[in-house]
Amino acid sequence: MIELRSDTFTLPTPAMLEAAQTSPLGDDVWGEDPTVRRLEHKAAELMGKEAGLFVSSGTQGNLVSILSHTVRGDEVIVGDKSHIVNAEVAASAVVGGVQLRTVPNTRRGMLDLEVLQSSIRQDDIHYPPTRLICLENSHNACGGAVLTLEDMASVRDIADAAGAAVHLDGARIFNAAVALRVSASSIAEYADSVTFCLSKGLSAPIGSVVCGSGPYVDRARKYRKMLGGGMRQAGIIAGPGLVALDTMIDRLARDHENARFLGQELNAMPGVHVDLLTLQTNIVIATFDGHGRTAGEIVTGLERRGVRCAAVGPQTIRFVTHRGVDRPDIEAAVEAVRSELGVGAVAAAT
Ligand SMILES: Cc1ncc(COP(=O)(O)O)c(C=O)c1O
Asked: 140: Cβ below 6 Å to ligand 1?
């Protein structure tokens, strides 16, 4: 099977498995797991922040981040295509009692700045205070599109003028950094807090890290405990996370090249459209029109041909490249799509 549903399917490397077996351990709820401490320290360093907190998942990271910025009744601005509002089970509303207010995401995953500006609440007895603005970089539902440093800075300016904080859902921040050819810290610089995932393109089996100021991370640690996320000998999973940070960042460029190749080949097929402008990292979102079949039917057909991908809309399919698929796999996937659609080979425009 050629697995293109998500980069979360990546399996740990032999070095990660060895780290799971050999990393020194302690009780992390007591602050005594040296491997978790090393991971948190290293993550904070990479993000240019004072402190880090190892959490079980990106969803938990975003939740403790929002809880640590807000109180009940606050308003949090998010993009309408953000993972936080669409795929995190309304956690911040349920647990934190905050109101999520959406602003349209542009095609590139940016917040519409005019709408953002006009969504900032004035001081009025009727209104909840705008406490936090969340960004996502790279942007999952916008085809892995990347916000530039200028994009980040413009949202930071609006937040500063409003007295609001900025949280970055950087689940795939290293994909964004590799695409922009900048350090992750230069992206995170515009946010007060950032969550990034070890378990996606970086190939670690489990875990994410929240980074921010020392006092902020202290608050987040308490919320993590409240959510049942205080893990004991968590060095078993933090060890592979350290290997991920040491060895898996630079290779993301290959995933991006493979995604670009796949996107170009798909876009050259009749009745298939891929937005090549926003195809900047490892996610390819393709729209299939005029084949008389739904995305779900095409996905089922491709599975029979040995390719797994995900229907993310009635006519839309998502393909994600990662360490577990190399160029020959991508070429085979392209052939499988051609056969499934009954189209011949056409030279892809670059
Ligand atoms: C942008 C983004 N944020 C957060 C998450 C949540 O991560 P997790 O699946 O580890 O909870 C994901 C997962 O796909 C994501 O794509």
From this structure: yes
* CA distances, 327 to each of 319, 324, 334, 344 (Å): 14, 10, 11, 20
Residue (of 284, 288, 285, 229) closest to 256 by Cα position: 284
57 lines ligand 1 (CB under 6 A): yes
Signed CA dihedral, 108, 113, 119, 122: sign only:
positive
pLDDT of 104-145, one tens digit each? 999 999 999 999 999 999 999 999 999 999 999 999 999 999
How close is the Cα of 202 to the center of ligand 1, in Å? Answer: 13
Q: pTM for the complete prediction?
A: 0.97
Of 247, 274, 308, which residue constitutes the final position of a domain? 247
* C-alpha–C-alpha distance, residues 291 and 225, integer Å: 51
The closest residue, in CA terms, to atom 16 on ligand 1 is 140
1, part of any domain: no
| Structure tokens that stand for 258 in this block | 């493979």
For atom 7 of ligand 1, the residue with the nearest CA is: 58
Our mutation pick for probing the ligand 1 site, out of 83, 146, 194, 282, counting the most ligand atoms within 8 A of Cβ, is 83
Q: How many domains does the chain have?
A: 2
